[in-house]
Amino acid sequence: MSTYHAVVWMDQKEAHVMHFDTESMQAERVKSRSHHQRPAGQLQKDSHHAGMTEKEAAEYFGAIAQALEGSHEVLVLGPARMHEEFKEWLAKHLPAVAKTVVGSEKADHPTDGQVVALARRYFHKFDNMAGKAGGR
């Protein structure tokens, strides 16, 4: 689905990617294939991203980036630092996708409906500040 806005809520296990406009929403889940998921503070030596190795993070973050294809503005949400790590990875590996990320915020474990409602409020304010009528 190609819509103007998308929101991602992610943790180290899965990402919920939602493309939406004023009338519709389409959700997709991207699962991490990491076999090294541990609670924070119990990271292995070669892990960098919440218990994932660089290879595991690249596969997971790459799949999320692919799910965002076609979006013009993206909001990234997640607990702890995961949303920031995703933004940093995008900036380093996929700068064109990184440019579509207009914000990121900490959010623990909301429902998909709560995520979309938060994103709609966020983009309403963001678009008004940017002088865009209705997010196109």
Give the key terms.
136 residues, alpha/beta, Nucleotidyltransferase, domain 5, five-stranded mixed beta sheet, two-stranded antiparallel sheet, 4 helices, 7 strands
Layout of helices and strands, plus pairs?
Blueprint: E1 5-10, E2 14-20, E3 25-31, E4 47-49, E5 52-53, H1 54-67, E6 73-78, H2 82-93, H3 95-98, E7 101-106, H4 112-130
Parallel strand pairs: 1-6, 6-7
Antiparallel strand pairs: 1-2, 2-3, 4-5
Region (Disordered): 25-50
Protein name: Translational machinery protein
InterPro entries: eFR1_2_sf
CATH fold title: Nucleotidyltransferase, domain 5
- The first-level CATH class is given as Alpha Beta
**Helical residue percent?**
25-40%
Gap from first CA to last CA: 15 Å
Biggest sheet, open or closed, and with what strands and sense?
5 strands, mixed
Number of domains: 1
Question: If classified by CATH, what would the architecture be?
Answer: 2-Layer Sandwich
Residue stretches low in confidence (pLDDT < 50, at least 5 long) are 37-47
Number of strands: 7
Structural category: alpha/beta
Number of helices: 4
The mean pLDDT is 83
Give the CA-based shape.
globular
Our estimate of the beta-strand percent is 25-35%
The CATH H-level superfamily is: eRF1 domain 2
Order of helices and strands: EEEEEHEHHEH
> What is the gyration radius calculated from CA atoms?
15 Å
Provide the spatial order of strands within the biggest beta sheet.
3-2-1-6-7
